[in-house]
């Protein structure tokens, strides 16, 4: 179902549309829950790269994607990389300018 949604959104909206990226992220989460960690990691990395490019590094959807990738890395025993990713995520989230933008509604969450 998620694969079909992703394919349809890519076709209709394009590969870089935020809704398409959200579908990619959802599919990666499902793959991870199925134990297909390498496939999930690959898709999470692709989604994160595109979220950063399309929405920026500090957008909530990008940050969520980063957290999801850290989770699948953790499941694979890649603890150091997961920890580094979470550390950088924590740094961004606690930065005062992030709170100002997030709380004042300058981000659209997809």
Automatic annotation (TrEMBL):
Name of the protein this chain belongs to: Tetratricopeptide repeat-domain-containing protein
Any one Gene Ontology cellular component term annotated for this protein: cytoplasm
Top-level taxon of the source organism: Eukaryota
Lineage start: Eukaryota, Fungi, Dikarya, Ascomycota, Pezizomycotina
One of the GO BP terms on file: microtubule-based movement
A molecular function (GO) term: kinesin binding
Statement: the UniProt record of this protein carries the keyword Metal-binding: no
Pfam family, one: TPR_10
Coarse class of the protein's main subcellular location: cytoplasm
Keywords attached to this entry: Cytoplasm, Repeat, TPR repeat
Compartments where found: Cytoplasm
